[in-house]
């Protein structure tokens, strides 16, 4: 065989192998990619649907078929939530800065607020009036000792902005206070959040009008109040140590009894109630890819994969469902 023939043969083999590799990658990616419909208008009054962030775009999917095709909007968000016809979108405004956008039912921006740090949590009260957010302004994880957060609240009716919960009065004034993970009660005044101080994590009950916070119990992170206002879903540090991971749990506010849920994987997310019986949350795979799961709130049953390749779940138009 001549040198020229050998060269052409080698090139042909390379082309075939490269083509096969491309086809394999596309096929593998397709097997991992969730069913996504064409980009289309997404509204916050569609019902019953689950709002999520899919590939950084706001999207909705039917609650009857959450693993099915979803409607994807052109609105880009890093974190999002919605309730009562109001949406909150934490987005990248520039390569160096982030912004909070308050959205109406048609996803039109009605107010923007520049926020420091990296977006981490977002919530809206059941009425749609109150909006809250958390960012990391130092560190990048709740299980690191050097992290620092900034959590704010916006009253969309009055326009009153609280840039940081550190402005509120608390019984203890340790220098290392951090707040995160706000969840609102139905009165649009009471809220719950996590406060870290002196190496301990506290569930705090807040009063927007009085600008005060008081401790309720310990080892509660990223609280989410149930639609009936009686329980809080949250992530509980295993053995009180966040470096060991978290167990998704539910706290009874009347008795302070804690019920571990059936999800045993470490969940680093603020859960969201789908209804009074079910909690949704984001669980990341080893490669960082997010999926939305659900689990019964009573401690029984088993986790269920709801929406592959999505995060930031919020149930819209579900009777007895989503609140702040």
The amount of beta strand, in percent, is over 45%
Name the quaternary structure: single chain
Overall tally of structural domains: 2
Question: Largest sheet, described in full?
Answer: 5 strands, mixed
CA-CA gap between termini: 74 Å
Flag low-confidence runs.
Answer: 1-35
CATH class of the largest domain, anyone? Mainly Beta
Number of helices: 1
Question: Based on helices, strands and strand pairing, what is the structural class?
Answer: mainly beta
* Dominant shape: globular
**CATH topology label of the largest domain:** Neuraminidase
CATH superfamily annotation of the largest domain: TolB, C-terminal domain
Determine Rg (CA atoms, Å).
22 Å
Written as H for each helix and E for each strand, in order along the chain, the element string is HEEEEEEEEEEEEEEEEEEEEEEEEE
**How many strands?**
25
Helicity range of the residues?
under 10%
Explain the overall architecture.
This is WD40 repeat protein. Pfam families: PD40 (PF07676). InterPro entries: 6-blade_b-propeller_TolB-like (IPR011042), WD40 (IPR011659). By secondary structure, this protein is mostly beta strands. It has two domains: about 1-30; about 40-315, TolB, C-terminal domain (Neuraminidase), CATH 2.120.10. Helices cover about 10% and strands about 50% of the residues. It is built from one helix and 25 strands. The chain has one helix at about 5-30; strands at about 35-40, 50-55, 55-60, 70-75, 80-85, 85-95, 95-105, 110-115, 120-125, 130-140, 150-155, 160, 180-185, 190-195, 200-205, 210-220, 220-225, 230-235, 245-250, 260, 270-275, 280-285, 290-295, 305-310, 310-315. The strands form six sheets. It has a five-stranded mixed sheet, with no helix packed on it. Strand 17 and strand 18 (about 230-235) form a beta hairpin. The protein is globular and about 50 Å long.
